[in-house]
Amino acid sequence: MITNESMDKLFHALAHEIRRSILDIVRDKPGLGVGELAKHFDVSRIAVMNHLSVLSQAGLIISGKEGRTRCLYLNVAPIQMIYDRWTDDYSRYWAERMTSIKYNVENALNKRNEK
Questions:
Q1: pLDDT band at residue 25, thresholds of 50, 70 and 90?
Q2: pLDDT over 90 at 111, yes or no
Q3: Per DSSP, which regions of 1-115 are E strands?
Q4: Is 41 exposed, middle or buried (0-12, 13-18, 19+ CB in 10 A)?
Q5: Which of 46, 48, 54, 112 has its CA 20 to 30 A from that of 21?
Q6: Which CATH architecture has domain 4-75?
Q7: Which residues pair with 70 in a beta bridge?
């Protein structure tokens, strides 16, 4: 069960462009170290650490220590819980179908524009 407080933290975490970029990078490179992640941004390492703190408090980032490196992993469960709160099986099916169509059209347009 997701509480109002946890939803507030989640939406706050997702509201910032850098935090969304962090989630994209960590999704694509699970286990990425904090130092390596910080290289992707034109802000201080401390600023990146502050963003990671917000993401961790929202439950979106899980970190673990491997030697001297803090490795980062994406946790999609909070986003799924938000999704599940406002959808049922019927609407979920159609939302997935519409999303699939959207991505297929976008991919076709991107391929056509690359030519």
A1: very high
A2: no
A3: 32-33, 61-66, 69-74
A4: middle
A5: 112
A6: Orthogonal Bundle (1.10)
A7: 65
